[in-house]
Amino acid sequence: MNQEKINQCLKEVKKIYEQFDASHDWQHIERVMKNAKMILAQENADAYIVELAVLLHDVSDPKYKKPDEDLEREILERLNLTDAQRQEIQEVIASVSFKGGNGKPATSIEAKIVQDADRLDAIGAIGIARAFAYGGAKGRKLYDWHEKARTEMTEQEYREAQTSSVTHFYEKLLLLKDQMTTETGKQMAEERHEFMLSFLKQLQTETDGNK
User: Any idea of the CA torsion for 69, 98, 33, 109, to the nearest 10 degrees?
Assistant: First the structure.
């Protein structure tokens, strides 16, 4: 029965993610699911809750959500879950987003797994690719070495500022390694973090950063 509902959810959300830009498309969900299962193998957690939360975690992302639309709630209702399961999945999803450093802390092991799995996809080689894909979709500069990264901001300021893609590394991506909450997530983040540092150093060498 659980697998049937996961398959039902998968079919519904795939259609939604295929409409998003490459930074948050269906491939993103596939990668986060892979990360989550790798972490799950080392943790004692409810895989059913984790998998449904991964599938649903971006369907109502404020970056793509239309006014008066609540796809997350609608899909959860169609899955005919228990009230407890629905509430748990929504609590997991609520803790995934970074929100300019204003995100909700992950408290349950399921929330920690999904948060780590999603953030792992925001760093390393794939994180670099996604950052520039999203920046391109929003018409942002590749880099601006004179732009100062913000250390404190509201969620609204984080979402609305048209900073360059490279500035986003300093405002979010380079911070994620130290915010991992599972041991597996921490280990996986190390190499990805170092790759981003190497990339930024090379980018500065090739451009007017000259560092």
Answer: -110
Question: For residue 57, what are the CA distances in angstroms to 10, 17, 73, 95, 143?
Answer: 12, 11, 11, 10, 29
- pLDDT of 151 reads 80
pLDDT at 158: 72
Spatial separation of the C-alpha atoms in residues 109 and 49, rounded to whole Å = 11
- The top-level CATH class assigned to 2-206 is mainly alpha
Instruction: Supply the pLDDT for residue 120.
Output: 98
Domain boundaries along the sequence of the chain: 2-206
- In the chain, the percentage of residues whose pLDDT exceeds 90 is 81
79-108 average pLDDT score: 86
Burial 91-102 (b: 16+ CB within 10 A, else e): bbbebbbbbbbe
Average pLDDT over the chain, rounded to whole? 92
Closest CA to 95 of 152, 57, 141: 57
- Amino acid type, 48: Y
d(CA 92, CA 186): 19
Q: How many residues does the chain have?
A: 211
